[in-house]
Amino acid sequence: MKKILAIDDIKENLVAIKETIEDLMPDYLVLTAQSGKEGLKIARDEHPDTILLDIVMPEMDGYEVCKKLKEDELTRHIPIIVLTAIRIDTESKIQGLEVGADAFLSKPIDTEELIAQINVMLRIKKAEDELRAERELLDEKVKERTKELKESQEKLQKTLNDIVIALTSTLEIRDPYTAGHQKRVSALSCAIAQELELSKDKIECVRIAALLHDIGKIYIPSEILSKPGAISPLEYEMIRTHPAGGYNILKDIDFPWPIAKVVKQHHERLDGSGYPDGLKGDEILLEARIIAVADVVEAMNSPRPYRSTLGILRALKEIEDNSGVFYDAEAVQACIKLFKWKKFDYCIDR
Fold first, then answer.
1. Secondary structure (DSSP) of 303-319
2. Which fold, 175-340?
3. In terms of CB atoms within 10 Å, which end of the chain has fewer, N or C?
4. Could you tell me whether strands 2-7 and 50-54 are parallel, antiparallel, or unpaired per DSSP bridges?
5. What is the helix (H) or strand (E) element at residue 7, kind and residue range?
6. What pTM was computed for the model?
7. Residue 349 pLDDT > 70, yes or no?
8. DSSP type of residue 104
9. pLDDT per position as a tens digit, 46-66
10. Class of the 2-135 domain?
11. Structure-model confidence comparison of residues 113 and 349, the more confident one
12. Comparing 2-135 with 175-340, is the CATH topology the same?
């Protein structure tokens, strides 16, 4: 049964309203309260469909009651019809509207107008309730879908990471002398990218591309990769094919970042002296320019079959001497800062 709450400090008024409404609207129960405080409690407990509210009451007038009803999450959606013996002038209406009143009726109350106004409020409340229910249902569906998409994204991310690790491990099996090289380059590249305050998305691109930057060496015979001593010009030319080889391996994988292009460009140099395409300056992706710096530093600071480690100081001197010539100046400064001032550590096993 639908409920209507009447709030008035005069008992006779409440009796008259109750008898009128229940006589003309027998399917409705009329609840009554003789004070604002009592009315607030009944509204919270019973959740009426409409409230008839007198304005002139002691202790707490109708304006204050209306304001409290509209501020309460449990009662703020209940339509309120203000009933008053005071002439409803513009100022009174504005005051009533400011505290949330939905309609106004003057005393003495016209029965037909009262019933018509109640029916209007009930229709409005029904429509608003249905709209809120649909919105809540939609919100719940959005939350569920968002959760599903997040779980799916996390699963895809894990799958992607597993694939990247598998590819990296495959190369390291063939070239044990550079085992860990790609991971260390990735760690340093990410640190440089963070120092440059790149977005999380770009940092993730740097991380993945750095982990895969030498994947093209799969095409190079292992005896060349692990050969002690000097390599021949022909062997060197074969090694120089690995960026393009990496691009061919990765170009058809649907990464959310330009991984294949970054891998292809990690040996390009700002002055155009790099390979495989002799790109210059901003023709080289920023992610590739960052990896180029990290790659040189890590390679010089690690032993190779044809030489012992050259040391971090020599590696840092190399990038500093060629800052803005071969290597991106901002990436160089970030890298130097990491080692000299922030005591950078790869945090992985060599």
1. -BTTB----HHHHHHHH
2. Hypothetical protein af1432 (1.10.3210)
3. N
4. parallel
5. strand 2-7
6. 0.59
7. no
8. E
9. 999 999 998 888 889 888 999
10. alpha beta
11. 113
12. no
